[in-house]
Design brief:
Number of domains: 3
Shape: globular
Radius of gyration: 22 Å
Helix content: 40-55%
CATH topology of the largest domain: Butyryl-CoA Dehydrogenase, subunit A, domain 3
Structural class: alpha+beta
Distance between the termini: 40 Å
CATH architecture of the largest domain: Up-down Bundle
CATH class of the largest domain: Mainly Alpha
């Protein structure tokens, strides 16, 4: 399968405003949509898809403009993820995770560190992966003078073989201190095990990774100065940021499912023989279902956009973020996560009610939307997101920062 980017992406200046970047994402989605179902069935490593993201400039969206980046803010990045996910949920996830890991140096590191990383990433169009599964605590980091050595195993490493660089995380030997570092994905000792074989998000390269003495300079340990970590409240925004990424590719997948189903209903679905209507589009229950699902999706999208705008001031002045600011944002993200999960699962399962039995044919690929949402929404239990919101409403308690809250 071949994926071709429009030639003018390489010869013309890139977008300069949010609207232009969202339009570019829509163009990328149109390319991906052509053979999305076939690529999902093939499950091949998405090298060409990532090349498409690079050629389009989407990988540099959050990068500094002076180094060739898009110079955009997080609300635009979330919308871009949503647009790409409409066509291909796996590539939407990869892009969203890339944005977080590209941002990780700024999130956790010192100013000198993140300025260096962001300049290089924008200039060379790096694609980021991450081996930071917090439920695996078996990566140990040894201090060898000026060098850190990572050894162990992570169950998941999204982006693995298609990434240029990988964010590693482990615990400093003999302490409870976590260390993040960015290393080239072809570093000696870093082995991606190619064992991702799940029902959905098949192209995310999310299999396990083995770290066998992966070496990196102490200077690359994010946020450490003279081997001591300098904490900020802003460091803890990784969870609400990535959860809002989840929200947006869930909603993108749902929107793609609804658009694909509607096209099928308009062109191929047949009216029920006992209903008295000539066309499926005249069936009252079909009309009602599309209205119901669309209203729910639009409402969830509106909440996601509102929460993204509420969070942007935290990025605009990272040193001023307080625990209360962070906690309130996390509660709002939790609400969006709960609603987006519910809506995406409902949309992607109910589309079959309004497309008909023939729409279940493998070649149609409508099942991929549900499989993708069902797979990733199990990342962490949505009940715990509702609990964060409920506790805040009843007691005013804000969630304490953890790997999942």
């Amino acid at each position: 399968m071949s994926i071709a980017a429009p030639a003018d992406w390489k010869t013309l200046p890139g977008p300069t405003d949010p609207e232009g970047w969202i339009k570019r994402a829509t163009e990328v989605a149109a390319v991906l949509a052509v053979d999305a179902a076939a690529r999902d069935r093939a499950g091949a490593t998405p090298h060409e898809e990532i090349r498409l993201l690079k050629d389009s400039g989407l990988v540099t969206l959050l990068g500094p403009a002076e180094h060739g980046g898009g110079g955009q803010k997080w609300p635009t990045a979330y919308k871009v993820v949503r647009e790409v996910a409409k066509a291909d949920g796996s590539i939407g996830q990869l892009l969203g995770y890339h944005y977080l890991w590209n941002w990780a140096a700024r999130l956790v590191g010192t100013r000198e560190q993140w300025e260096q990383v962001e300049a290089a990433a924008a200039r060379d169009r790096w694609f980021f992966g991450g081996a930071v599964n917090p439920r695996d605590d078996d990566v140990v980091v040894r201090d060898e003078g000026d060098t850190l050595v990572f050894s162990g195993h992570k169950s998941f490493s999204t982006g693995s073989k298609v990434s240029d660089v990988t964010v590693l995380e482990g615990v400093l030997d003999g302490t409870d201190k976590h260390v993040f570092a960015i290393v080239p994905s072809d570093s000696p000792g870093l082995t991606f095990n190619d064992d991702w074989d799940n029902i959905g998000q098949r192209l995310t390269e999310s299999g396990s990774v083995t770290l066998d003495g992966v070496r990196t300079p102490w200077a690359g340990a994010a946020g450490y100065v003279d081997k001591e970590f300098r904490p900020r409240v802003y460091n803890t925004l990784n969870v609400p940021i990535i959860q809002l990424v989840f929200v947006n590719f869930y909603l993108g997948i749902a929107a793609g499912a609804l658009e694909t189903a509607a096209a099928y209903t308009r062109t191929r679905s047949r009216a029920w023989l006992h209903g008295g209507y000539e066309k499926a589009t005249d069936e009252p229950y079909v009309i009602d279902a599309y209205g119901d699902l669309t209203a729910k999706l639009w409402a969830a999208e509106a909440l996601a956009d509102r929460v993204a705008e509420e969070g942007q001031p935290l990025h605009d002045d990272p040193d001023a973020v307080t625990p209360a600011d962070r906690g309130r944002f996390e509660v709002r993200v939790a609400a969006a996560k709960a609603i987006s999960t519910e809506v995406a699962l409902e949309v992607t399962s109910r589309i079959f009610e309004v497309t008909g039995a023939r729409a279940t044919a493998t070649g149609q690929g409508l099942d991929r939307f549900w499989r993708n949402v069902r797979t990733h929404t199990l990342h962490d239990p949505v009940a715990y997101k509702r609990r964060e919101v409920g506790r805040y409403v009843l007691t005013g308690d804000l969630p304490e920062p953890t790997w999942y809250s």
